[in-house]
Design brief:
Elements: H1 2-26, E1 34-41, H2 45-49, E2 53-62, E3 65-76, E4 79-88, H3 95-99, E5 104-111, H4 113-116, E6 132-139
Antiparallel strand pairs: 1-2, 1-6, 2-3, 3-4, 4-5, 5-6
Amino acid sequence: MEEEKELQLEMFQLKLKKWIENVSDKFESLLGRRLRFTVTDPWEFETENQRNAFDGVVIAVEGISLLFQSDIGVKIDSITYYSFICSPRLESGSLDQLKNNIDMWCSATALPKDEAQSNNPFDLSWWRGGGGLIGTLSVLPIPKPEKPGSDPNFR
């Protein structure tokens, strides 16, 4: 009986791993994309940061979450963060929205530097609260390349 439960657990873990790999592959096109995170909660965010939004880039995707690296230090409760795990806030939300240039309402967990640089930054088992944001992720336009010869410093 115990062996059967262990086998069922192993099978479930393998299926889950495969599902995560398939979902992650689907959103690989988001890697390197520039996003803007517009914060709606906590309300004191703008007071602490003198802004309500910050830009950054998608570093990695796993399952339905992405690792977002901010261009600037973001203060939350007087601690500065640069990395965030962002996930859809609502059941109806999906990374498909970002893939299709549609804003996605999301929650974000701020990562301390050592967690952001760990082998698995998506593992939030250490998290016990704090450092959370709610807001909207928006895809920023891809800058158009300049015409050859339009840069006077390059000939």
